[in-house]
Amino acid sequence: MKNQIHLFFSIACFSFLFQSCNSGPNLKIDTNNYQKKVDSLIKIMTFDEKIGQLNLLASGWDVTGPVMDPNYKQLIKQGKVGAIFNAYKVDYVADLQRLAVEETRLGIPLLFGYDVIHGYRTIFPIPLAQSCTWDLAMIEHSDRIAASEATAEGINWAFAPMVDISRDPRWGRVSEGAGEDTWLGSKIAAARVRGFQGESIYDERTLLACMKHFAAYGAPQAGRDYHTVDISERSLLEYYLPPFKACVDAGVASVMTSFNEISGVPSSSNHWLYTDLLRDSWGFKGFVVTDYTSIYELIPHGVAEDSAHAGELALNAGIQLDMQSSIYLKNLKNLVATGKVNETLIDKAVSDILTAKYKLGLFDDPYRYCNKTRQENEIMTQESKDFARQMVTKSCVLLKNDNQTLPIPESVKKIALIGPLGDADVDMLGNWSATGLAQNCVTLLDGLKSEGINKNIQVHFVKGCNVNDDSTYGFNDAIKAAKNADYVILALGEHRNMSGEAASRTNLDLPGVQLHLAEKIIELGKPTAVILFNGRPLTIPELNKKAPAILEAWFGGVESGNGIADLLFGKAVPSGKLTMTFPLNVGQIPIHYNMKNNGRPVDPTNPEYQFRSKYLDSPNEPLFPFGYGLSYTTFEYSDLKLSASEITNTDTLLIQARITNTGNFDGEEIVQLYVHDLVGSVTRPVKELKGFSKVFLTKGESKTVTIKLTTNDLRFYTLDMLYAYEPGKFEVYIGPNSSTGLKDSFLVK
Ligand code: BGC
């Protein structure tokens, strides 16, 4: 059974997977030295002590599933736990560590894991929002701050980055990822690993990263969380796996399994994925942890008869640390005794986990992440908050701005802030907000008020309605406030828990009566800007028709209100670009820019002709394409030049274009490069992102942007499943988003 997927995918020749597997900086450490220490420790461990190292339990805080072993403290003392998650704060962590170090025979320290997804206490914008900055250095730095804060309170292992590509905004966990594009997603994935792990895991301000959820968790049928994934081998290799490979190349220390199956095999029993691909092909050297109770879930998946069978499948697949099932703890002894599991696999798992503990320095000092001075002085510093505020300004995406409604004109003195997200502190945190606190969040109301005071502006807030019910009770007050104001800001969207884990939606409209409220207010004819707070693309065609301006603010974390106010008052200029397509309606999903052409694409000269790939009741085009985002200023693209009309595998093609700031603000533009491989041995997407450049231009300024391309960038899985480029003609586009741009072509020989 476990070999099904191996057989299914065995024809895949992972030539790119074998190529220079540059270990990241942390793996440059003298691993031989660790290995000797680890080997000698394993030699003196009893079988029970080994199994204890493979058990990961929640401390009882923040659980997202059933708690299997509430008796975790007792188990630690008995040497039956190797790692704990959801325990933080120096005193608490140190107490638990003491149980392991002082009360067990060998005193092996525990790992402390936690979901540090977009900040620890200084909460940054949700990862989807961060990806809209297209700013790799900024993303890396945010994770460095998160690592520094988390390690100040006892954590040494982050359950991040989540690098699942997803093309389905119904799936609530798109909020945790970097959007729909594999190329950009891979760059962000590697940046995040660097952010968490730094130059060395031994540094007390860095920690172990954990890429998750391996693999294809972002492609559940119908967008329903945890649901079946049925995916072609080619799509898996080309679109879903590369961000994981990028993490491995960056030296990621651990990997988490996913809840889904691929081709009938759940991840936590997938030998092909975890042994053949991850270890043997990619050269992954860290350890593998399951997702929450995933080994147990092999039973409801229907591949394991009982817990013992589930444990057997998982261990034999290469799954090493059991999160919350305690199945290894209870079954491995018997499985070895009956010959169903080989003890060498257990030794290997123990060795990989102990190596991580050595690398963290836990054997030098098990309390090195329990430093009260750091806990008191290094969390939520002014510097981190300033950085978070800047990140908010960079991750917002301006979707519409008719008649320069934004920024708010200087003449405005009375603002009505209306909507259920206007003063919603806890929602600003987004989901998976670690130890972030609602009281630390600057809401939009707070941000407008503190900026407004300097400008002598009055801000009047009326909620108007709730996020998600049908009461219109507050409409009259809202209308009255709008009538009294000379500018209206509508704060609309989702609650933070409407995206994230187990938060799939089948309807992506603004929930409740919010659209209705917006229509009533917009009808008044006042200058009105909508600020959207949400964890995924929404379907907002009506709002887009009616609202003069829309700023997508996502959930921006603790500095949300300040960062948005900076944009609204023109202290900062929007530059974010969407990393997920905004569909027009749910029926278009899955929708993504890098679609295939198919045999019957719509003919632009005869768009009405029926027997073409289209809908009877909707255009094919989304509301906002991937890469889209406006600025207060305007940019003109001109003078596209290619350094050659033909290239071979030894050439670098330089693609240049001139970008001019033609508007009235200084601003930053994210210039995007797409290619289209016109004829392949298999069908190719109509466009694929292959590069970008961020360029800052003062009013009237022009700059030439150069983006490089080589044949390496043009590789894909050919008909023979070789990862290779194919000679032929390629179109190249350079532009402000995936649906428009200057176009040229070149030949590959
Ligand atoms: C999630 C993981 C998370 C884990 C531990 C699971 O439910 O899928 O992403 O790391 O819980 O909190």
Descriptive account of the structure:
This protein is of the alpha/beta class. The chain folds into three domains: 2-7 and 21-375, Glycoside hydrolase, family 3, N-terminal domain (TIM Barrel), CATH 3.20.20; 388-586, Glycoside hydrolase family 3 C-terminal domain (Rossmann fold); 633-748, Immunoglobulins (Immunoglobulin-like), CATH 2.60.40. It contains 24 helices and 26 strands. The strands form seven sheets. Strands 11-16-15-14-12-13 form a six-stranded mixed beta sheet, with helices on both faces. Helix 6 links the parallel strand 2 (83-85) and strand 3 (111-114). Helix 20 packs across helix 24. The longest helix has 18 residues, at 343-360. It is globular and about 75 Å long. Mean pLDDT is 94; it is low at 1-29. The structure holds beta-D-glucopyranose (BGC). Beta-D-glucopyranose (BGC) is lined by residues 64-65, 115, 159, 212, 291-292, 501.
